[in-house]
Structure formats: C-alpha cells, structure tokens
Design brief:
Elements: E1 51-53, H1 59-69, E2 71-74, H2 80-96, E3 109-113, H3 115-118, H4 120-127, H5 130-140, E4 142-148, E5 151-157, E6 160-169, E7 204-210, E8 221-223, E9 242-244, E10 251-255, E11 260-261, E12 272-280, H6 290-293, H7 296-300, H8 304-309
Parallel strand pairs: 1-2
Antiparallel strand pairs: 2-10, 3-6, 4-5, 6-12, 7-10, 7-12, 8-9, 8-11
Length: 351
C-alpha cells in the first residue's frame, strides 16, 4: 500500500509550533509586542516558487514542478473556443444554483457539478486533457502483486475521477478558508523534506482551468506552495499564500494535499469563472458520485475512456465488478464476464 499516511501518527509528528517554545523565539509583531507563542517558521521568500510552464511542457517537467511546489501553472492549456462552448453548456446550471448556507463558500459563489455529463466538451478538453491525465497516471496509479496459491498475480489500479465543479465567484465574495481536499479521505499526513521518488504520497491531483482571467482582485485561487509536504497537524497560515493568477485558457494543477482556497472578489463587476476537477486513486471512493450524478443514457454517449475515468472500469485485481465482470457491462452488454480479472504477467514499465 502506498505511504499515504492514512492513520494517525504518534505525538512526535506534531508541528513544532504546537509545543512550548522559549520566550526569545516567540513572534514579535510590528509594534514590538510578544506574539501568541507560535514560531514564524517560514516567510513567503523561503517558499518554493510556483512555475508557469508552456502547454508544450513534458510530463517529466510537470512532475518535477509538482514534487517541489505542489502546484504548477500551464499556460494556454485550453483554447478560448472550447472554453466558450463549455461556458454556454454550464451557464444555465450556474444560474439555477442557490446561495450556500454556511461559511465554506461565500453566498456570492455559484457552482455546478457533473461537468462531464453536462458538457461533452468539458469532458474532452478539460478533464481528459492529455498532459493532465498523463500526470495523474504518474502520481495516482497503484501497482502491486499478490500470491494466488503459488503463483504471483499482478494488478494495476488506474486513476478515476474524484470530482468536477464549475466555480463562479462574484463581486463581494469573501475568501474561502484554506483547506486540503484530501480531507475527504481522512488522510493524516506525516512531514517529509522532499517528495518520495516513487511518487506514491497523494490521493488526488486537481486541474483548474480559467474560463476568464483570474486575478488577485477577483478571487484567484489562494495556495500555499510546499504545503503538500507538511504534516497533518500543521495549521495553514494565510500569510504564506500565493495566488494562482491565470489568463483565460490557463490551468493550475495542484495536489489535493496542498492548502488552498478561493480568493475574495473585491471587484465591482468581474466574475472569476473556473472549470475544475480532481482525479483520485482507483481504489478510493469518488468524492462526487458519478454513478448517480450522470444518468446511464448520458454516460453511454460519452467516449469509452471518459466512461472508464468516471468509474466504469475495474480497479485491478477485482474492485468494482458487476456480475464478476468489468462494470462497463451495464453500458455495453457485449462485455463478457466469468474470467480472471487480474494479470498473470508483470506489466512492463510505464504500461
């Protein structure tokens, strides 16, 4: 099992700021007064810098940037023409949304969901973006082997969709609390100094595509670079945030383990519009239930690779079957069952 930190650790994993520290090391505010007893562990100058890469970047470049910072910007990821089509598909759903009750989302924010069912263009051009999907394969694919009697069997669990949301942040919206999206999986992470070489640490990878320019003023995503390496107990610090400022068509890729949140929209007439999704591991439950969110008739019309990403596929060796067969049989009855669902030969590297 990957080292995902799926259990509570001992007290030594607690962040140093939670323990007693000498008075000489306590925070001092601008007026020279002693602070609240918490160390100023980092300044924004000490944080890793978020890279902005062209849409021609290699998967290796994106992987390296994510390992260091936890997030990376991809310029011109989606064409303006495709974005306009997606917005036309989703705008009626945004207009039907109602204000959120509570503090997590501002009342001025509107949302819509099930983006792959509601916009085929969003499925093809945003969620299934080749660079994003190839990067998800690197970080979220799980490979293992098991004994079946005296024979080794091999299993590969490919990534699946975690959620899809369109966010419209309108004037007057307050900033969203900083949070990690892997809290859906009760992840209790331990601190590491560098990202593991086997890439097996995270449960999710996000992809936020700007449908309009995202600026500091209109609510660009706030993000703490490097927070994907922090331990569970470390509290987010708003003073450490950077903003994922994007032009229309740019995208921001980010681990679910990074502290982030929507920014405040301090403009009078600008909407911050974003198409977002997260992918997760094939053996974890989807945050947004795509089996229920998208009806079967709509799902049948989508390409096979989209159906599989939505969960209509096996997480090897045999997680998610229907009648001991590939669950896509409910969409395509020609698929056969009653056969071994695992592999008897070790997959080749990169397969």
């Amino acid at each position: 099992m990957p080292g995902l930190g799926l259990k509570h650790e001992s007290h030594p994993s607690y962040y140093e700021s939670k323990t007693e520290i000498p008075n000489t090391e306590r925070l001092i505010d601008a007026n020279g007064a002693r602070g609240d007893g918490r160390l100023k562990q980092e300044s924004t100058n000490a944080l890793p810098k978020v890279r902005a890469l062209p849409n021609t970047a290699s998967v290796a470049e994106v992987v390296e940037a994510l390992k260091i910072t936890g997030g990376v910007i991809i310029r011109d990821a989606v064409s303006h023409e495709d974005i306009d089509i997606i917005e036309k598909d989703l705008r009626p759903l945004l207009d039907k949304d109602t204000p959120w009750e509570g503090e997590f989302f501002p009342k001025q924010t509107r949302r819509c969901y099930a983006l792959m069912g509601n916009s085929p263009t969003c499925a093809k051009r945003v969620v299934m973006h080749p660079l994003y999907q190839a990067t998800c394969d690197k970080f979220l694919t799980t490979r293992n082997w098991f004994w079946s009697g005296h024979n080794k069997t091999y299993a590969t669990s490919a990534p699946q969709i975690m959620n899809t949301v369109c966010f419209s942040i309108n004037p007057g919206a307050h900033k969203q609390p900083l949070h990690r999206d892997d809290w859906a999986y009760h992840v209790v992470a331990t601190k590491v100094d560098k990202y593991p070489d086997d890439l097996q640490r995270d449960t999710g990878l996000g992809w936020f595509v700007a449908a309009k320019d995202a600026t500091v003023e209109n609510g660009a995503t706030r993000f703490i670079p490097g927070s994907h390496l922090w331990e569970h107990e470390r509290e987010p610090d708003d003073d450490l945030v950077e903003y994922a400022t994007l032009r229309k068509g740019d995208a921001f890729m980010m681990f679910a383990s990074c502290y982030h949140g929507g920014g405040a929209n301090q403009t009078e007439d600008q909407e911050r519009l974003l198409f977002s999704c997260f992918m997760t591991r094939g053996w974890l439950r989807q945050e947004e239930n795509h089996y229920l969110a998208i009806d079967k008739e709509t799902m049948r019309k989508l390409p096979i690779e989209v159906q599989q990403v939505c969960g209509y596929s096996l997480s090897e060796p045999f997680l998610g079957w229907v009648e001991s067969a590939d669950p896509r049989m409910v969409l395509d009855p020609s698929l056969k069952g009653n056969t071994d669902l695992y592999q008897t030969e070790e997959p080749t590297a990169g397969a």
